[in-house]
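Quick check before the chapter quiz. The format below is the same one you will see on the exam, so make sure you can read both the input and the output lines.
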Amino acid sequence: MAIEPQTIMIALSAMAMVTCGWFINTWLRVRHGYLLENSWGRSVYFKTVDAVQQALALLSQKKAQLRAELGSAKDRLNVERIVTDHGYSLTQDIDALRASASDRSTKP
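Here is the expected output.
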């Protein structure tokens, strides 16, 4: 029973696609600063201290950026809640927001 050439070509092309996908995935992970994992799911650590410091700096910047975005989203949510609520305490909510904004501007 001989294997047909079509079957061999399909198998080889599938292996080539899987290998190319693995290379692209690894390249994207390295490019965006993610830690690499080995086949058992454990992190592959950087060999130099500079690389670790660069990765930590990148993560710190990303963390600060996400915290700033979260703060602005919370502020926007408070404003939208006041605008969309038609309750009796609208003026009280606006005054409370003004007071909290002035408190934040006076704090170092």
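If your answer matched, good. The mean pLDDT is 81.
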